[in-house]
Amino acid sequence: METPTRMKPIQMVDLVGQYLRIKEEVDAAQRRVIESAAFINGPEVKEFEKELATYLGAKHAIGCANGTDALQIAMMALGLKPGDEVITASFTFVATVEVIGLLGLTPVFADVLPGTFNIDPADIKRKLTPKTKAIVPVHLFGQSADMEPIMAIAKEHGLYVIEDNCQAIGSDYAFRDGSKKKAGTIGHIGTTSFFPSKNLGCYGDGGALFTNDDELASKLRRVCNHGSDVRYYHEVVGVNSRLDSLQAAVLRIKLRHLDEYAAARNTAAAVYDRAFAGIAELTVPERSPNSTHVFHQYTLKVSGGKREALRKHLEGKGIPAMIYYPVPCHLQNAYKTARFAEGSLPVTESITHEVLSLPMSTELDEVQLEHITAAVKSFFIKNQ
């Protein structure tokens, strides 16, 4: 393994380095929670929900146990029934589709755009049927899907929109009239995960839902809490899904740094962009004209069948690189159907053979970035 001397080991996400920068704040907050013994729905949770809602410009933010639960709770609160069709992307982490299946709903897959990898509004329109009840756009890798046409489709056909915002929290979406909203606050419900490696991550599992609808917020809270508003009285079937106070305390601190973290990620992305600009076999991430990018991932497209060789070359130099995602959901054994056989989503299937994500972290320094970019460039010099 070749790495420069005196260089910190390179990780996809450097959570320890990030922690050390906020260690005093985090340690004090954790002690405060432990000494209060208010571990569930304590003051830290309530304050975090308020602060998150304010940051996002949403009326309500509701903590829950994880991002997968957030999606399931959203669908339960909207009253979706078995057999209802939900349109979403196949090029996503499986949780998006998993909850659709768990509730007996039918996933319907729309293709994605080849540049941003986000769901294609035109293909959403092509996939509509009388059974369609909801759309779940996934804001992939750090920028928002094109929400304005998606919301127009939903309004025209009386559909719900649930935003899967697990990878783009903090991103701004710009409407055609120049107005802006945070990703996750445009549809009927937004959802997110606070998995540790997320841009806003806790030190365990956590998630949240957002909405601007007071009645819907009440339903979401009820579903999160065993279907109950008053203890021991259960109005609907619910789940037990809570964000604990220790995680909320960490998230309150990290939320204050979220824009700073996004700026650091954009700085690293700009270094990558400049370094790879002249390499014909690499396509750097496309920036949507309608969204800022917070770079949850920095994902290249590698053409010419060279992706695996490049990944192994980087591994040999102490550089991790990941494939998000090698098999799209519609080709996974759990979700295969005749309607979405191989070849049915050509863009999705094509990019799964090309995408490669490089390390992306708030803690990447100049030495690490120089090592990564030099390693990538040396591969293509050798393989011209």
Going by CATH, the architecture of the largest domain would be 3-Layer(aba) Sandwich
Main sheet makeup: 7 strands, mixed
The CATH H-level superfamily of the largest domain is Type I PLP-dependent aspartate aminotransferase-like (Major domain)
Q: Say how many strands there are.
A: 14
The N- and C-terminal alpha carbons lie at a distance of 23 Å
**Low-confidence regions:** none
- The CATH class label of the largest domain is Alpha Beta
Relative helix content:
25-40%
Average pLDDT reading: 97
CATH third-tier fold name of the largest domain:
Aspartate Aminotransferase, domain 2
Give the SSE string: HHHEHEHEHEHEEEEEHEEHEEHHEH
Classification by helices and strands = alpha/beta
| Count of runs of 4 or more consecutive helical residues | 12
- How many domains, as an integer? 2
Compute the CA-based radius of gyration.
Answer: 21 Å
Strand content: 5-15%
| Envelope shape | globular
Could you explain the architecture of this structure?
The chain is α/β, with parallel strands linked by helices and 384 residues long. 38% of the residues lie in helices and 15% in strands. It folds into 2 domains: 17-252, Type I PLP-dependent aspartate aminotransferase-like (Major domain) (Aspartate Aminotransferase, domain 2, 3-Layer(aba) Sandwich); 258-382, Aspartate Aminotransferase, domain 1, CATH 3.90.1150.10. The chain is built from 12 helices and 14 strands. Helix 3 (43-56) runs parallel beside helix 9 (245-276) and helix 4 (67-77) crosses helix 5 (95-102). The mean pLDDT is 97.
